[in-house]
Write a structure and sequence with these properties.
The protein has one domain. It has 6 helices and 4 strands. Helix 2 links the parallel strand 1 and strand 2. Helix 1 packs across helix 2. The radius of gyration is 21 Å and the shape is elongated. The protein starts with a helix and ends with a helix.
């Protein structure tokens, strides 16, 4: 976590942009709290703001995809609050279909990216690749 935070800090220092982290985790007492913990530690170690986006596994996804439940872990120190809010069951992230999970992550990324700038960068990259290919094609050995 320290290494990732220092990386985010170095990128923030160079790019002057706010750090966003996409988080995926189990829907259980520890997994739900991990989103907060990740944000707290990244902010502490990077000495700046970080936004953690918990994109999966969320309760609405559990219900929508009818994921199989597991008993909530009573021995977890966070169990009482979790059970009061969500009931006596928990769910594992890996129960979600990989294609569905990939779609969730892709949509989360698209919401954070300036798609106009992204497409412009793709066009510039393609133009540079085309130019290099022209140079290669015209080389004589």
């Amino acid at each position: 976590m320290y290494d990732r935070a220092k990386y985010l800090q170095s990128q923030r220092d160079v790019e002057h942009k706010h750090a966003h982290v996409i988080y995926l985790g189990d829907h259980d007492p520890s997994g739900i709290d991990m989103s907060r913990d990740v944000q707290d530690r990244l902010e502490l170690y990077s000495d700046g703001p970080v936004t953690v986006h918990r994109v999966a596994l969320n309760h609405d996804q559990v219900l929508r995809h009818e994921l199989p439940p597991d008993p909530a872990k009573w021995q977890d120190s966070r169990a009482a609050d979790y059970i009061a809010k969500y009931g006596e069951y928990s769910w594992e992230l890996d129960a979600l279909d990989p294609t569905t999970l990939a779609s969730i992550v892709e949509n989360a990324i698209k919401q954070l990216v300036d798609l106009e700038k992204w497409r412009a960068a793709e066009k510039a990259q393609q133009a540079a690749q085309d130019k290099l290919q022209d140079v290669i094609d015209n080389l004589t050995v």
